[in-house]
Amino acid sequence: MFERLEALPADSLLGLIALFREDSNPQKVDLGVGVYRDEAGHTAIMSAIQKASREHMETEDSKTYIGPVGVVGFVEGIKKLVLGEQSSAIQQGHLAAIQTPGGCGALRVGSELIRRLGDELTVWVSDPTWANHVPLIQSAGLPIQSYPYFDASTGMVNFEAMDEQLAKLGPNDVVLLHGCCHNPTGADLSFEHWQRIAERANKQGFIPYVDIAYQGLGDGLEEDVKGVRYLSENIQEMVIATSCSKNFGLYRERTGALMIQTKSATEAAAIQTQIQDVARANYSMSPAYGGHLVDKVLHNDELRREWQDELNAMATRVKSLRAGLLEEINKRDIAKDFSFITQQKGMFTYLGITPEQVSELRRDYSIYMADSSRINVAGLNTQCLGYVADALKKVCG
Ligand SMILES: Cc1ncc(COP(=O)(O)O)c(C=O)c1O
Questions:
Q1: pLDDT in tens, 313-328
Q2: What region holds the Aminotransferase class I/classII large domain (predicted)?
């Protein structure tokens, strides 16, 4: 029977990893895969997470199932991390929430919940968006459309075009927004944009669906969620998917959370049973380990401070790599304007070069990036900035 199915084409980013590994050029640079890297190219375990892990190993005395919510302290901590201690939704009990297997798990459960709301709903994603949004949403049975977002000529958000599309949406629409550090472009909404979106959502009746996978890796833990918090305080209903993969470095531990903000505590209680039911039908319950670690880090002053310091250092490193790359580019008087590099946020930047130029960089200079020309800025290091700028000069003229 299995002959009915054919092999699928290889994932292009995973293919890039293999090509990079086989490349013997000592100057090779991997800007493809979207994980944080330090100056040595290593994705280290964060020190606060290491400490929490040791403590957890010593104190955990059972591996029996946890409840359907996941690690309760984790879920409570993440709600406050994203929405703030003073959040009205938290204080009024308007939030349903569960721990999920990573941000992907949150997006999948969130999408299935949205699917349960009716047959007519459409999810709108930014053009472009993170490639995995499409299968995660579509496999929940939801149709996808895209709204204009990125302005390739400026490297920033074309909010006018986006807003024009939002103005046409209504109560059967769900709008997926990147909470901060837009993947793949690095072009983020300004606070004023978030205010306009809240206004639109209230007027048109669509539901915002915020994916926040990089809190703390842009302008800081609080700054990065100003938009999401504004939405939460100013509209009644929304969906939030969060990930601890990047900001706690827990990638393989599959740690995330889904929050649904509803109009009342009664609705939140009903939705709580629905999201638990979706999870139960998919994977029963989330792995607990990552949740225990984040719970410990968030609820221990010393560990929390250590984690925040390390996260700030990571964000600062990415910013200084952006500045360093632009400085090297400017020294070489390259025809293309790359000044957007320092205005964009988070780990990613769209270089805005052609697929042919991307291939040339790979073939002639062993610089690896996605075909779209998205680069992971954290894949750079201070030693290779000049080399990358030289290659860009050769390729772009
Ligand atoms: C935009 C975005 N959303 C969600 C995720 C979820 O990641 P994970 O499932 O690894 O937590 C990622 C990871 O790369 C991402 O870039």
A1: 999 999 999 999 999 9
A2: 27-392
Between the CA of 26 and the centroid of ligand 1 the distance, in Å, is: 30
Q: At what angle do helices 226-234 and 72-83 cross, to 10 degrees?
A: 90
341 CA distance to ligand 1 middle (Å): 22
For each of the domains in the chain, give its residue range(s) and CATH number, in order of start: 10-45+303-396 (3.90.1150.10), 65-299 (3.40.640.10)
As a whole number of angstroms, the distance between CA 234 and CA 20 comes to 47
Contact (CB, 8 A) for 316 and 325: no
Beta bridge pairs of residue 95? 261
Residues 6 or more apart whose CB falls under 8 angstroms from that of 350 comprise 150, 152, 155, 184, 185, 186, 187, 372, 373, 374
130 annotated active-site: yes
| Ligand 1 center–CA 217 separation, angstroms | 13
Q: Is 268 designated active site?
A: no
Q: What's the maximum distance between 2 C-alpha atoms anywhere in the chain?
A: 62
Nearest CA to ligand 1 atom 13: 213
- Determine how many CB atoms are found less than 10 A away from the CB of residue 383: 10
How far is residue 119's CA from residue 141's CA, in Å, rounded to a whole number? Answer: 9
- Ligand 1 binding site (Cβ under 6 Å of any ligand atom): 34, 102-104, 130, 178, 183, 211, 213, 243, 245, 251, 256
Residue nearest to atom 6 of ligand 1 (CA): 103
Name the one residue in this structure whose structure tokens are 């002639």.
Answer: 364
Q: Which protein residue has the closest C-alpha to ligand 1 atom 3?
A: 213
CA 2 to ligand 1 centroid distance, Å: 31
d(C-alpha 368, C-alpha 23), whole Å:
10
Which residues of the chain carry a pLDDT beneath 50?
none
Containing 14, the helix (H) or strand (E) segment is helix 12-22
Q: At what angle do helices 355-365 and 385-396 cross, to 10 degrees?
A: 130
**Secondary-structure percent of the chain, ordered helix, strand, coil, rounded to 5:** 50, 15, 40
CB 188 within 8 A of CB 144: no
